[in-house]
Write a structure and sequence with these properties.
The chain is mainly beta. The longest helix has 17 residues, at about 540-555. The relative contact order is 0.14. Keywords: Hydrolase, Protease, Signal.
Length: about 550
């Protein structure tokens, strides 16, 4: 039985799909999560430094949670400066100014008070001393990878260790820069911890117990900074005016094994492995079999599928395949193949959509091993702006008006097929007449784009295929940049996508995403960051299918 253990659920899901046809307990659990998210999200705030002289808000931000109706905010000491002004932004877009009060650095606790009088959305405080291993929890805060958004991102996890080192709580709720000071909730909607720091492993997310804030409440009110070397006397009693007793226990998840095992048979055969070549690289992806107008096709992520795809079905059989359409905007590719099994029926009229009200909805992705990964819908219908320019690990030089390939002096996630001494004459069949013109053209391309260089190599005209890379981060590197699998090469410049916290590897993009009812809601299109994976929704996939098939039929 899966009694009182979300961890057991996660383990089982590694070998099964996620449909609950025979049990309403997980559906109830999902609804409980969504209820908590709806209740507490209005008080989860985004915080940025504010210059009172210039009346200007800085670009950087971190997170916090309002815990009193008159505007006291819990956050992280490492993100604040006592006496500093801060812009407080609520999820509905409302902004106000607050002032940082005390900081107790050795427990990474800080307090901010909203300056103006008012009745503010707030959350109830619980207790962290009674937390149990495997207890479910929700994270709601503002990760830096989506820093331009005004809405917080939801993540679901469980307690790994309620008494980890340095008096922290270890959870599976993913964190990255920007999340600092954000709230961790139990499934009663009580604040139980605040985000503090991470380590390299995706399971090492360290939370500051809320009991530390209650214990040192009087120090936090002073407006002083208490450095790491100063350890104040503990208070044996907690006497804050907003303290509420923690609910005891947490709900179990009995009765789901049979449902998971049964659903597995229905979902695995819609996923395929794809191997192909792009430039000089061998690339791998997952694909999703879909059926439209009684014909079967494969949908996947275009930038990791070349024009020579080899399709491997779940039963190990390889089938012939051909790329018949691409969509550079959504990074989608359409593949025709022989003898495809199964297939997800695609219809214009569908209920397989997600909305803001669905945040916290369980989402399950087929992984590289054709098992499954669970996450929750963190945000829906968002735009991920372009923040990366095209780049090649090559130094181009102008030699008497000729653009030549010089030595490589950068570090990139990609190497190049060009060779030192090549004379570049064209890029994607456009003549290259200057060094600036070549750099501007490369900058305009997206990471992952396949390109063709026309070069003179040892006096002979040669066509060289290559893949545009991404400049590696050199400054302000953080341990969050080094998570397992890393980000997708192309992981930005998407419109109307959904975000979830499933641990998707870049080579698992193109695989299907289902909800807790087993309904197809889209495909994974990119791993954005340590915290976020991005999916293309059903409606965009259907539109792409119809558009490409219409083009083919008109030829």
């Amino acid at each position: 039985m899966l009694k009182n253990s979300l961890l057991c659920l996660f383990i089982l899901i590694q070998s099964a799909s996620f449909t609950w046809a025979q049990s309403n307990v997980p559906m109830s659990f999902e609804k409980d999560c969504q209820k908590v998210i709806k209740e507490v999200s209005p008080a989860c705030v985004k915080i940025s430094a504010y210059d009172r002289v210039l009346k200007k808000t800085d670009n950087g931000s971190f997170s916090g949670v309002v815990v009193t109706v008159d505007g006291y905010i819990l956050t992280a000491a490492h993100a604040t400066i006592a006496g500093q002004g801060y812009t407080i932004q609520f999820p509905n877009g409302k902004k106000c100014i607050g002032t940082a009060l005390g900081r107790v650095q050795f427990v990474d606790a800080a307090l901010i008070k909203i300056d103006s009088a008012g009745s503010w959305p707030y959350c109830k405080i619980g207790r962290s001393k009674d937390l149990k291993i495997n207890q479910p929890c929700l994270s709601i805060s503002y990760p830096a990878s989506l820093s331009l958004l005004s809405r917080p991102v939801v993540r679901l996890g469980y307690i790994i260790n309620p008494t980890a080192d340095s008096c922290k709580i270890q959870t599976t709720c993913l964190m990255e820069p920007g999340d600092s000071g954000g709230a961790l909730f139990d499934l009663s909607g009580h604040v139980i911890a605040l985000h503090s720091r991470i380590r390299k492993s995706l399971t090492e997310n360290m939370e500051n117990p809320v009991d530390n804030y209650l214990k040192y409440w009087r120090l936090l009110l002073t407006g002083q900074t208490f450095p790491k070397g100063f350890i104040p006397a503990d208070s044996n009693s907690i006497e804050t005016p907003f303290y509420r007793k923690q609910d005891k226990g947490f709900k179990g998840l009995d009765g789901v094994e049979n449902s998971i095992a049964k659903a597995l048979k229905d979902k695995k055969n819609v996923c395929v492995h794809i191997s192909s070549s792009r430039g000089q690289f061998k690339v791998y992806a997952l694909g999703t079999i879909v059926t439209v107008n009684a014909k079967k096709f494969i949908i996947s992520k275009s930038s990791i599928v070349g024009n020579d795809p080899q399709i491997n079905l779940i039963n190990g059989v390889s089938v012939k395949a051909e790329v018949i359409g691409r969509d550079a905007t959504n990074d989608l590719v359409l593949i025709a193949a022989d003898d495809l099994p199964g297939g997800i029926m695609m219809r214009r009229e569908t209920t397989n959509t997600t909305s803001v009200e669905d945040e916290g909805r369980f989402l399950v992705s087929v992984s590289d091993s054709l098992n499954t990964r669970i996450g929750v819908l963190g945000l829906n219908s968002i735009n991920v702006p372009r923040f990366s320019a095209g780049f090649l690990d090559i130094k181009f030089i102008d030699v008497n008006g000729k653009i030549k390939v010089g030595y490589s002096d950068y570090t990139s996630s990609q190497s190049s097929a060009l060779q030192i001494g090549d004379v570049v004459q064209s890029l994607n069949k456009q003549n290259i007449n200057s060094l600036n013109g070549l750099h501007n053209k490369i900058d305009s391309l997206r990471p992952g784009d396949e390109v063709e260089f026309g070069v003179l190599r040892n006096g002979k005209a040669v066509i060289v295929k290559d893949v545009i890379g991404k400049r590696s981060k050199v400054f302000n590197r953080h341990i969050a940049d080094f998570f397992q699998g890393g980000p997708s090469l192309r992981n930005d410049d998407f419109n109307d996508v959904f975000v979830h916290d499933g641990h998707i590897l870049p080579k698992e993009c193109g695989g299907p995403v289902f909800d807790s009812k087993g309904e197809f809601v889209g495909i994974n299109i990119a791993r954005l960051s340590r915290v976020n994976s991005i999916g293309i929704p059903y409606t965009a996939i259907y539109s792409f299918l119809i558009s490409q098939l219409t083009k083919i039929s008109s030829l």
